[in-house]
Specification:
Helices cover about 25% and strands about 20% of the residues. By secondary structure, it is of the alpha+beta class. It has a single domain (about 1-85), classed as Nitric Oxide Synthase,Heme Domain,Chain A domain 2 (Nitric Oxide Synthase,Heme Domain, Chain A, domain 2). The strands form two sheets. A two-stranded antiparallel ribbon has the order 1-4. It has a two-stranded antiparallel ribbon with strand order 2-3. A hairpin with a 2-residue loop joins strand 2 and strand 3.
Amino acid sequence: MFEQICEHLEYGTNEGNIRSAISVFPCRQSGTPVRIWNAEFISYAGFEVSPGVIVGDPNHVELTKICIQLGWKPKIDRFVYILSI
């Protein structure tokens, strides 16, 4: 699934010439569960730089914290992306 999602992103971004794409996967029957952490494959990170002050997407502050706890070392910027698969 990860490889197919990466192919989807490569197809859709099309070296900057964006095109529509959709990927549909069957229900997982057995084996290792797959977890997609957010509603989009790629989204903007959100950082609480001080109490009540958010840089980036405020909807993804908690996901960004989880990614950092898992070892991600982002540059704090309002245009940092999260690929969460």
